[in-house]
Amino acid sequence: MIDNTLAHPELAAFEVHGMTRASFMLRGALAAGAVYGTAAVGPFVSQALAQTGGGDAEILNFALTLEYLESTFYEVKGKQVGLSGQAKTYAEEFGMEESQHVAALMGAIKELGGKPVKKPTFVFPATNEKSFLALASVLENTGVGAYNGAAPSLKSKQLLGVAGSIVQVEARHAAAIDLLIEKSPTPNGGFDLPLTKAQVLAKAGPLIKS
Amino acid sequence: MSQDTEQQDPVTQPAGIVERLVRDDMDRKRFLKAVGAGGAASFGAFVLAACGSSKSSSTASTAATATTATTATNSSDSGDVAILNYALTLEYLESQFYENVIAAGLFNGKVGALLESFGSQEKEHALALKGTVSKLGGTPVSKPVAKFPIENANQVAQLAYTVENLGASAYLGQAGNIQNPEVLAAALSIHTVEARHASTLGTLVKKSVTPNGAFAIPADMSTVLAAVKPFLA
To answer: Can you tell me the ipTM of this complex?
Structure first.
């Protein structure tokens, strides 16, 4: 059982949004397991737990899983459902950008001496352009919350800059998609909510097949 | 507890608020949990209430220290205060800009409503930042006098696109400089909203929603302040 508190004892007691960093990770795993069964998030959770030392690599691997999810969604599912017009343009452009996020995070994890998680298999419940865009909105907005929730736990200021650079783009994606489907581009109003890992996994977990 | 910070006027002795938050640690944690569960509206309140109580608290020890200090009691807070005041200046400019745009009546319907909502959000940002500066023991900057060219709808939308992109890059440029993790969390939550604004304006002026591609580019303080100088009267 990984104990984040040993690697960075000064951070263990530190509270971000009312939760210690150690319990942040554990609650996420437990909550996801309880609601969806471990199979839904198994590979990610087991890989995260298998890592020793935790730290920034662990956080980046969490982000990497989401980027794999988004890039696969745009590039593979986007082609399957058949998109046209602005939806097609966004899927192509955003898919490329998510792929670049994947590459950047993999590189950063390796530089830290960590092991990037393998790309999972995903299942996306979308059958046409309308349901595709609705899911795109969920994924992008969840991505914003995920990065905003996790970034303050990063030890490295350089990686914080990388995370900030990526999350800004996710927010741009989210707003563009939301406008396209005639939703508010600022669904959280003036302040985007940071999400806990459990909240992120509640949205993304069911899409991770293996 | 006769001579303590509760008896000081919190407006003139802002550091007293930090001291009180330190001693009331159990209440603070309960409050944070409570506002944390409340959703977006209360996250703004979280920003106002929570900042400044974690880092500075470990060194502020006596009521005397707290009450005599009228500026932030340690250098990490004063660094954050400087950044927050910089952000506050930008938010004041943005909210003034939207006020002027709305007053000019150039937009109506959906676009008008969107710009009005953005203006309200910039005001919320300013309010939150101002409160955070005070809670950290700093003095919030005054609202600057600003002027913006307002000629026609397209020109204004272009200007808004420029300003919002600048705002997003400004926040990104400061993320690594912020010391207090709660202040950082608040800055990040504002940063992505500015990005959403910029993206929206991009769709309106038919320019890229991601002008820098996959990785947004940070701008440093001097670059941003030079860029906004023309708007300061």
So the answer is: 0.77
